[in-house]
Amino acid sequence: GAVVSQHPSWVICKSGTSVKIECRSLDFQATTMFWYRQFPKQSLMLMATSNEGSKATYEQGVEKDKFLINHASLTLSTLTVTSAHPEDSSFYICSAGDTRTPASTDTQYFGPGTRLTVL
Amino acid sequence: AQKITQTQPGMFVQEKEAVTLDCTYDTSDPSYGLFWYKQPSSGEMIFLIYQGSYDQQNATEGRYSLNFQKARKSANLVISASQLGDSAMYFCAMREGGGRGSTLGRLYFGRGTQLTVWP
Q: How many whole angstroms separate alpha carbon B34 and alpha carbon B93?
């Protein structure tokens, strides 16, 4: 299957600082990537849809100015948590789809996730 | 209304036995895709199986099979011959619209079922 990487895998930062998380599709091009947030023992919640070359589409209730998304190339999307606070501590996970073939199942492949802890 | 419902917070099964994880969905779109993902304690989301709404046969992938009952809007995952390594959180997800090879759409996730396999 297609491979999606995320960096860093975990990060600890002080309150008020900004943190950038990278999501890369390693062996395919992804025009669309998705960013999810997951709290412990809970489901994945979609934060935003990242489209290459255009502005991201944010879900209702997600602060655009706090969670900056940039999808500058077909293999890289970044999520920047600005002025992070302890309540932003969570597991952030991205996904990208491999639509190289017409018979694709449109499966979204997920990155390994980034665990953010804000002190 | 919830688009994906997983009613089993936790399931226990003995090694080598089969287990069924329940999933029901709600959509008015005639075209949709159903997915199952496995999330071990490491956090990565592992794609298991896909079922398209127009697929005539139930999907199978090795020890995984999807019991697709369209009229009942259910897409239960059956794991045969359970292994200790199957212990993980399992998520059912749905994508509305499109079809094979179409543009990616967001996934709606259920709350997940924690499966524990005991020796």
A: 6
